[in-house]
Amino acid sequence: MTPRTTAAALVSATALVSLLGAAGPAQASTGQVVVFSTELMPLDIYDNPTGCR
After folding, report:
1. CA nearest 35: which of 21, 53, 16?
2. φ and ψ at 12, to 5 degrees?
3. Of the candidates 44, 43, 48, the residue with the CA atom closest to the CA atom of residue 32
4. Which of 7, 29, 39, 48 is 20 to 30 A from 16 via CA?
5. Whole-number Cα distances in Å, 7 to 22, 40, 45, 48
6. How far apart are the first and last CA of the chain?
7. pTM score > 0.70 for this model?
């Protein structure tokens, strides 16, 4: 890439981020979380889990 092409790409990327805005606040998904431990253990299924574990 030439310096001119690199500068144009940087300006374009900056403009795109400016138009789209920053990422919004994170939101938790709803539904089931299925956790695999080993082949010998049954799957753990959590409905709409909350918090970190």
Report:
1. 53
2. -65, -45
3. 48
4. 29
5. 22, 56, 50, 46
6. 46
7. no
